[in-house]
Amino acid sequence: MNLEVIIGLEVHAQVATSTGLWCACSTDDFDAEPNTLICPVCVGYPGALPVLNAKALELAIKAALALNCSIPEEAKFDRKNYFYPDLPMGYQISQYDQPIAVKGKMQVEVGGEKNKKEVGITRLHLENDAGKLMHEGDWSLVDFNRSGSPLMEIVTEPDLRSPEEAKAFAEELQKILQTIGSSEANMYKGQMRFDASVSLRPMGEEKLYPRVEIKNLNSFRTLEAALHYEIRRLSKLWEEGKAPEREITVGWIEEEQRTQMMREKETAADYRYFPEPDVPPLKISPKWVEELRASLPELPAVYRARLIEQYDLNDQEAEIAVTSINLGRLFEQVAKESGDHKRARTFVFSALLSHLNKEALDVSQCKVQPEHLVELIKAVGAGKISASVGKEVLEETYLTGKDPLVVIQERGLEQVSDVGELEGICEKVLGDNAGIVADYKGGKEKAFAALIGKVMAATKGQANPNMVTEILKKKVG
Ligand SMILES: [Zn+2]
Question: What's the CA dihedral at 226, 147, 85, 100 to 10 degrees?
Answer without folding.
Answer: -70
